[in-house]
User: Fold ROK family protein from Microbacterium hominis.
Amino acid sequence: MSKTAGDLGTGRASLGAVLDFAWTTGAFTATDAMAAASLTRSTTIDAIDSLVAADVLRELPNARAAGQYRAGRPARRFELPADLGMVAGLDAGDTHLTLRIADLGGRTVWHRRVTVDPAQTIAERQKAILEQLDTGCAERGIAAKPLLSICVGVAAPVSRDGQSPPHPEGFWERTNAGLVHLLADRAEVVEVKNDAQLAAAAEGALGAAVGSRDYIALLAGERLGAGVVVDGHLLHGAHGGVGEMFAFDFVRGVDSAFGLGPVIERRAREMLADGTADPAGRLAALAADELDPRRILALAAAGDDDALRIAAAVGEAFARMVGVLGSMFDPEQIIVCGAIAEGIEPVLEAARRSIAPYLHLPAPVLIPSRLGGDIVTQGAVSRALQNARHIALPALAERRLRDDPELAAAVERAEAG
Assistant:
């Protein structure tokens, strides 16, 4: 990331405390901020006045004008404007780019998904990402607001400095095409993270794992990837590789790190090819180009025998995966994420029936995510908002104060006094 929280400096501690409080509340008074930030009244008022003068906080009509005044001197009221700046979350997938831009209240102001060629070069991928970001920021006047924070999710391990290690076939380097450097001048803070880790962040902030300290968010579309949270901490690893699923290539009965979607489709095609599917059944009636995993899962949910056999076979393999993940990380729940989650219940039900031989610990609860196919951008926005709150917004305030000598001197006097 291009900035750290320490860049605000100890001389601006009161500003940081007031900003952090303002982020978590709506309209507030100096008394509210003073109590929450543990500051003296004079220091609180000086910090608020400095932030208002720097156009970081907005002063609202006082309590009398707002219709809340009863007696005595009406209190001044302030807020952190949600449109002070924007954040962006980008899912930079192998075949798609999905961008979500949100205000500081987390409300989406722009959202679009475009398809990209998985065979594109690094330069072509970089160009496509910049075009998507520029298009989003140019819409609806977003370009007039500072982009405080960007978080990008990629299908690759990512180190803490935003780099991906070499891949035997060059996939990770192509997927994470130097993005932390490419986007460095586009926002105050730029962060690149593994997409499954962002899925875990989304589940923890918005989904089934709210309040949970031990869970795994399993992206299970084209390839498997896991975001692992243990004791409330999202695990990372030396190269960002916690949750890489390549090991399943070597687990008997699983044999690959392909996602549940491709495995379901492959099983269906095998049954049709070897004649084990009912020739008069609903599965056999599907055309070759209709063997979509979600269509097959819908047949299973409707009770089709062939589709249920596919769900049972895939569920058995998934139970083995759960056995490995459960033994390694002891989660209380495993959440299947991505677009495949909407219809995955027949597979999960089969896995629940099959799990006992593969795990001595209590089995985790297996549940489908309710966040849909856009979970990575939701996690990226959640992470971008955290970075805006703790890093980018204090840095913006610091810069505006530094650029105005009179304001800077007033803050220094208040801090010293």
